[in-house]
Amino acid sequence: MKNKIKIAICGYGNLGKGVESEVSKNPDMELAAVFTRRRPLASLALKSDVPVVHFDDASLWKGKIDVMIMCGGSARDLPLQTPVMASLFNTVDSFDTHAKIPQYKASVDAAARESNNVSIVSVGWDPGLFSIMRLYMGAVLPDGKTYTFWGKGVSQGHSDAVRKIDGVKDAVQYTIPISSATDRIRSGETPEFTAREKHERLCYVVADDNADKNRIENEIKNMPDYFADYNTAVEFISEDELKKNHSRLCHGGNVIHMGTTGDDNKQAMEFSLKLDSNPEFTASILIKYARAAYKLSKKNECGAKTVFDIPPIMLCFDEDEAVKMI
After folding, report:
1. What is the mean pLDDT of residues 268-275?
2. Helical axes 78-86 vs 101-114, angle rounded to 10°
3. CA–CA separation, 265 and 285 (whole Å)
């Protein structure tokens, strides 16, 4: 196919590797380069035969990339990196700190508009697909309540936030829904829950030698936007145990909406995911929104957008074939 969409990856962790493996499954795309802050560049050991470029040299690639897929963490990487890349390229990212999305979008929007680029922010399954489901459910059944549960599974963003703590060598964080909460909703109740009543968090941490484990545990449990509002357990384990027992990146979750129509007739809507690989599934979503960003840029649109702004048909390679799904 001529004129394939040239995709680049910024950040080569689990998500970046997922994007690398999934790009080849899309006939209208090709991987052009991988960008990183690491040195030496050769340490990335890509599976693909594409250039590895240092983040600071990104401007040299302006005009050579159609969409940059941002694969850094939401805690410290994306707020700094995405505005820089949005000033050079169309971008797609998976920023997932829900409370900070408005200010994050505003920052990216300013950079993208100044350079006439398109940036689609907070793309993934939550925020992302789950966001769309919450919107549909609330619109269809306005007399009702929507509940979101995540897990049991490994949260990439929360795991990354723990790994950023000084003295942490590696870490994995599991989000665990509290079954009594989901049982109450599915039985027809519509209670008010605090975050602590819906989920628990479990962190397995490999600490550096001589690290202050009490300080690390305290930083984790009191981290705003990530752990402070939840009952969080922290277990320190060896690197070998982490690799042996916690290397799979499974995840999933549910959006449940309980509403009423007419004379108090109860109506239930539910959307669920069960994922063997959280990063590969998230990568697949990012790639489809990269296609949408490319299409929007060809229509001379610009600025930051969310999944709410993107017509579903724009995610599809063959739009005519997709219409048959109606």
Report:
1. 97
2. 20
3. 35
Mean pLDDT of 115-141: 98
Average pLDDT, the chain: 95
Region class of 139: left (phi > 0), else alpha (psi between -120 and 50), else beta: alpha
Complete edge-to-edge strand list for the sheet that includes strand 231-236 = 153-154, 168-177, 199-207, 231-236
Containing H/E element for 309?
A: none
Sheet holding 144-150, edge to edge: 144-150, 251-261, 265-275
Residues in the chain: 326
Instruction: Say yes or no to pLDDT of 41 above 90.
Output: no
Query: Which is it for the CA torsion 148, 135, 290, 38, positive or negative?
Result: negative
The predicted structure's pLDDT at residue 45: 82
Q: State the residue for tokens 């505003």.
A: 106
3-state helix, strand, coil in the chain (%, to 5): 40, 25, 35
pLDDT digits (tens, 9 = 90+) for 188-236: 899 999 999 999 999 999 999 999 999 999 999 999 989 999 999 999 9
Contact 168, 211 (CB under 8 A): yes
The burial of 99, by beta-carbon neighbours within 10 Å (0-12 exposed, 13-18 middle, 19 or more buried), is given as: exposed
pTM of structure: 0.90
Rounded to an integer, what distance in angstroms lies between the CA atom of residue 302 and that of residue 304?
A: 7
Helix axes 14-23, 278-298, angle to 10 degrees: 60
